[in-house]
Write a structure and sequence with these properties.
about 50% helix; four-stranded antiparallel β-sheet; binds 2-oxoglutaric acid; 16 helices; nine-stranded mixed β-sheet; alpha+beta; single chain; binds fe (ii) ion
Length: about 475
């Protein structure tokens, strides 16, 4: 061995020792490491909220999922995984798009974290996490995802490593990375969005701030996980595992709800694997709904296309980052969800932003806008009809009242009243005529502008005036990540 080679080995060994010592120091700082009374109390209260009967700890394990799911080991799950792997290095964006994104095919990508500031592995151990984020507060959910508790990561890590070993449905840390908490930016700097799923692939980023913020840090012990679902707003997702192992089962879009779901209490991931998984393995399960099983290893990234059902069970302590994105290839579905779920004053700037950033979608946006304009007209007509109905009811009421008064009041008063009423009605009629003229004018103008807009004219201004009624649509340019 040459001298320089020998020196290199010594240096590498010293560096390794130093790293090990650093980790050891952090670990030494950890004990006495107990969950705080406050966090412990919060968990108890949350448990009781889901299972009111579970006053004693043992009742929280009455389903015995810890034993019933013990057969789902890393090894047995790996055997059931027949999914091909795609190497991040060497697979271009174009190739990934044509093989997976366009045809909507799920897959597993390896090597995504190689150029991350904190790649998968040691940087995500308990000791490292405690060192960087131990004091930070994060959101923790029960298996029904209905009760959120916030607690410091050090308390949650105690629960995940020490306190959840018997729980049927352990709590899952699900922190949305909005940027509101100071530490979010640090974490965002530690990973990179894989190039296949960048901003040019995410319609949610058409406006700033994004229409939907959908990126999370997830940490969970064995049996925690995500129950059967497909992702909201017709979005797709990527999910990179930084430590531990996850068992995924996917079903194609269109698989009927009733075979995937059962009215089982607390049907989180653990309940699903205990009750439904055995069914999907039977011969009687419809062939066209055949499950795809994946064992996600540390460092692997799963791509879940829109509409695909998925259920995810953590087999050991896992840490992952995941993000949803609204793929331009699903524009119409996404737009329908956005229209149904967001106020109009958010929908319109978003459509403007989409059309600007994805010129190829201009015609598609135009179709959606036409639909919105039609809908607005129909709404206006309905409103007018309602108003007219209201007016005639008022008139009838007034007439009835007048009849009663006739008997009591003198003739002169009556005449005076009638005169006054006639005058008022005349005035109202005149006003109505003016309004109608104005409306007809507006309608014609709107129609003309819409025609012009379709022909590529100043559609931005038209939308502002007629749909949104805002003076300023705001900045719709793409923001950088
Ligand atoms: O638990 C997981 O890792 C999957 C998360 C997931 O499917 C989701 O956030 O939609
Ligand atoms: Fe999901």
């Amino acid at each position: 061995m040459s001298l320089s080679r020998c020196l290199c080995n010594v240096l590498a060994y010293q560096m390794k020792r130093r790293r090990e010592e650093a980790v050891q120091e952090v670990e030494d700082e950890v004990p006495p490491w107990e969950i705080s009374d406050k966090a412990s109390e919060r968990l108890k209260v949350a448990k009781r909220a889901i299972r009111p009967s579970a006053v004693k700890a043992k009742e929280w394990s009455e389903q015995n999922y810890a034993q019933r799911l013990a057969k789902h080991t890393v090894e047995s799950s790996r055997k059931r995984d027949s999914m091909e792997r795609v190497a991040y290095e060497g697979t271009s964006n174009k190739r990934f798009e044509s093989r997976f994104l366009k045809p909507s095919i799920p897959t597993v990508i390896t090597g995504v974290t190689a150029d991350w500031d904190v790649p998968y592995g040691e940087g995500w151990s308990e000791a490292s996490l405690l060192e960087r984020y131990g004091e930070d507060r994060m959101e923790v959910y029960d298996s029904t995802a209905s009760n959120a508790l916030d607690m410091q990561l050090k308390d949650y890590l105690w629960y995940a490593t020490e306190g959840s070993s018997k729980d049927d449905n352990p709590f899952y840390l699900f922190e949305k990375l909005t940027g509101e908490a100071g530490w979010h930016d640090q974490l965002r700097g530690e990973y990179k969005v894989p190039s296949y799923f960048g901003l040019d692939r995410d319609l949610f980023s058409a406006t700033q701030p994004e229409l939907v913020i959908a990126r999370w840090l997830l940490i969970g012990p064995p049996r925690s996980g995500s129950g059967i679902h497909f992702d909201p707003n017709a979005s797709s997702a990527w999910n990179t595992l930084l430590r531990g192992h996850k068992k995924w089962v996917l079903f194609p879009p269109g698989t009927p709800d009733d075979i995937l779901k059962q009215p089982v209490l607390e049907l989180g991931a653990a309940g699903w694997f205990a009750e439904v998984y055995p069914e999907c393995r039977k011969k009687s399960w419809p062939k066209e709904c055949a499950p795809i099983e994946i064992l996600q290893e540390p460092g692997e990234t799963i791509f879940v296309p829109a509409g695909w059902w998925h259920v995810v069970l953590n087999l050991d302590l896992t840490v992952c980052v995941t993000q949803n994105f609204a793929d331009p290839i699903n524009f119409f579905d996404v737009a329908e969800h956005v229209r149904g779920g967001f106020p109009r004053e958010e929908v319109t700037p978003w459509l403007l932003g989409v059309s600007k950033a994805w010129p190829g979608l201009k015609d598609a946006v135009s179709d959606v806008v036409a639909d919105i304009l039609n809908e607005s007209e129909e709404e206006e007509e309905e409103e007018e009809e309602d108003m007219e109905e209201g007016e005639s009811e008022e008139e009838e009421e007034m007439e009835e009242g007048e009849e009663e008064e006739e008997e009591e009041e003198e003739q002169e008063d009556e005449e005076e009243q009638e005169e006054e009423q006639e005058e008022e009605e005349e005035e109202e009629e005149e006003e109505d005529e003016d309004d109608e003229e104005e409306e007809n004018g507006e309608e014609a103008l709107l129609e003309a502008k819409f025609q012009a807009w379709q022909a590529g004219a100043d559609w931005n201004g038209i939308l502002q005036e007629h749909i949104l009624g805002l003076d300023n649509v705001g900045d719709t340019t793409l923001g950088g990540e």
